[in-house]
Amino acid sequence: MENRKDKLTAYIEEERTKEMELKEREITLETKTDLINDIIGPRRAGKTSLMRLEMKRLATKVNKGNIIYINFESRRLWPLTPEYFNDIIKIIYEEDLLKHGKVYLFLDEVQRIEGWEKYVRSIYDEFKGKIKIFLSGSTSKLTKSKLSYLLTGRHLTTIAFPLNFREFLRFKNIDFQKPITEQKEALIRKALKEYLSMGGFPEVVITKNENLIETLFLDIISRDIIPKAKNKEIIEDLAYFLCSNVGKPFTFSRFTKLLKERGLEISVPTLEKYFNLMKESFLFFDLDAFSYSVKQQLRAPKKIYCIDTSFVNFFGFKFSEDLGRVMENLVAIQLYRVVQQHPKMKLFYFKDYQQNEVDFVIKDGLKIEQLIQACHNIDDFETKRREVKSLINASKALRCNNLLVITNDYEAEEKIKGKKIKFVPLWKWLIEV
Questions:
Q1: What angle do CA 305, 307, 308 make, to 5 degrees?
Q2: Residues 247, 359: contact at Cβ < 8 Å?
Q3: Strand, coil or helix: 174
């Protein structure tokens, strides 16, 4: 009978010889630091593919035998036991891998091993600089806050988002490099309609299977949220409500009143806890209202967005009924990605006392870097007047002159009331940002 270590050795060797067709992503894993690199993000956003892409890149630079990949969901490794971590070290020594340089250890679905964190910490502490560790796992088990607690001072987090628009175009083999000809632009615009509707989860993009969207959404709710929240009906109501109201001011007290009207009792703190579980699972994210007063920021309603526009379309309002709201959600997603990559950056919305609202405020350190409106129907005179007025008022209040309106297809640079405002089509902004 094959013993445990032999089973692991055979598994590792087979993984080394696998040839897989992988689509390039813009997200890359950090190999220059010795810190543990943990990969988190929504289910099926491509965490395993990111690992395999990094392995493929490393294979061109280092001894291929020094790359070890283990997926603890593989049935071949059952029954799972913490002794596997000792076996990994034994294999490294037996194969004398360290003489060839650093060993790169990829541990997928690591949370399947009970007490994994103390073994990973031990390997890191003992072999720092000699073994570089990458790990990923179920979002419900490996949240950012939990990893910060378990791996204090030892890790660097990479978030695997669904595809951005450039990645989406690459998956579709659509050329978006300059110069953009009329033919290219037509293809890009057509792709954007699909992207707005179907979103950016890699498997959905490749298969065009709408049923997968429902599966993904319900998987996140049933596997990552409900086990911790226990109240299935309220969780589902909240998720569907938020999908239908992305970008609109939201207060937990208002939603508790709506639930009470339906005979469902819940406290505001409990509802906030449920929403935080949704944030940890990367189903939704929220923006605070910008104010120089922290107290006013906390009092103001939040604006909430969904991590993928496919969820908004299939579980909220219909795509054809409110394209502007879906467009705003997509802009929010892209800005959220950018801010997550820059620790000093924060994303807000802004509303003054006259109720003039700016969709997005980008703050970089102490400076307000940019003010952005997302407006699908800029051709309508009243709509344009309202959006521009809010932008100019915010520009004066926040002392920021970098003003942008993201549109459906209008492109220009206008000077209005002494303020220079850029108008950029959504497709072009998504490619360039």
A1: 110
A2: yes
A3: coil
Residues whose CB is less than 8 angstroms from the CB of residue 400 and which lie 6 or more positions away in sequence, other chains included: 368, 369, 370, 371, 394
- Helix or strand or coil: residue 200? coil
What whole-number percentage of the chain has pLDDT above 90? 80
| Cα dihedral sign, 162-165-170-171 | positive
Give the Å distances, CA to CA, from 322 to 188, 301, 390: 21, 22, 21
pLDDT band at 21 (very low <50, low <70, confident <90, very high): confident
Residue in the structure block whose two tokens are 């459906």: 408
Closest to 198 in 3D by CA, of 212, 184, 185: 212
Residues of the chain with CATH 3.40.50: 4-159
* C-alpha span between 52 and 115 (Å, rounded): 25
Handedness of CA 106, 109, 111, 115 (dihedral sign): negative
- Is it the case that residue 397 has pLDDT exceeding 60? yes
Tell me if residue 59 falls in helix, strand or coil: coil
Tell me the average pLDDT of the chain: 93
Q: Specify the fold of 4-159.
A: Rossmann fold (3.40.50)
Residues 6+ apart with CB under 8 A from 48: 71, 108, 136
Could you give the CA distance from residue 283 to residue 125 in angstroms, rounded to a whole number? 34
Residue that is written with structure tokens 């959220």 in the block: 336
Q: Identify the three-state secondary structure at position 360.
A: strand
Residues 158 and 29: their CA atoms lie apart, in Å, by 7
The residues, ordered by sequence, that sit 6+ positions from 65 with a Cβ below 8 Å of its Cβ are 16, 95, 97, 100
Total Cβ atoms within 10 A of residue 427: 23
Contact 367, 307 (CB under 8 A): no
* Cα–Cα distance, 352 to 393 (Å, whole number): 8
pLDDT digits (tens, 9 = 90+) for 315-347: 886 544 578 899 999 999 999 999 999 989 999
pLDDT tens profile 362-377: 999 999 999 999 998 8
Q: How is residue 262 annotated by DSSP?
A: T
